[in-house]
What does this fold into?
Amino acid sequence: ARHVDQVLALLPFEPPYMEAAGMRCDFVGHPVVTEPQASPDEQAAFRARHGIGDAPMALVLPGSRRSEISRLGPVFREVAKRVHAARPELQLVIPAATPVAPLVEELCADWPGNPLVLDPRRLGEEATAEKRAAFGAADVALAASGTVALELAAAATPMVIGYDMGWLSRQIIG
It folds into this structure.
């Protein structure tokens, strides 16, 4: 607190914690907090549309930038292989960001279990609704660190967050 003048909080529950620690804090919000969430009917329709039914479903979100996918992709691939070996009935769903959709498709082309890639280039106007439905329908997610963690939290989807940094950052911090 002695090094912080003021915190601009993204989530409404944060100010009391910051203030209790002796910091001034104002809730300014985040767009994710106000975005609509998929209804149970939309989630069920997503599962039906993609033939998932009641099978367990995991989202894999390796990032929205080439650098993230390049660093985290091999790690997420290894996780996918191990999880599939332990739970072959698990359906992997990989929502891709438009700029990196081809890279994501290439990344998971050899993953086991025939993962479903949600490519916004093919989904058109339905891309946002399809992504929200997937987030709500998932049982668990593995995601790159970033805004997607807030989106998953808003959808009440349990998650594991992965992070890796570039070589230069690692040298500076190390």
Remarks:
- The chain has a mean pLDDT of 93.
- The first strand starts at residue 6 and ends at 9.
- The beta strands are 6-9, 24-27, 57-61, 91-95, 116-118, 140-144, 159-162.
- The first helix runs from residue 14 to 20.
